[in-house]
Amino acid sequence: MDDVDDPSRRAALRPEPPGPSGPSGHEGLPAADLRRGTDQAGVRAYNERLILSLIRRGDGLPKAEIARLTGLSPQTTTVIMNRLEADGLIRRGEPQRGRVGQPSIPYRLDPDGALAFGLKLGRRSTDLVLVDFVGRVIARRHWTHAYPQPDLLLAQVASGTAALTAGLSAERRGRIVGFGIATPFELWNWAPQVGAPAGVMEAWRGFDVAAEIGARMPWPVHVMNDGTAACAAENFFGRAPAPRDFVYAFIGSFIGGGIVINGNVVPGRTGNAGAIGSMPIPLARADGSVTTAQLISSASLAELEARLRRQGVDPSGLYIQPHDWPDYGETLETWIAEAGRSLAVLTAAATAILDFEAVVIDGAVPSAIRSRLVEATRAGLGHLDLQGLTPCDIREGTVGADARAMGGAALPFLANFARNREVLFKDASDAQRD
Question: Using alpha carbons only, what angle is made at residue 51 by residues 46 and 57, rounded to the nearest 5 degrees?
Answer without folding.
Answer: 125
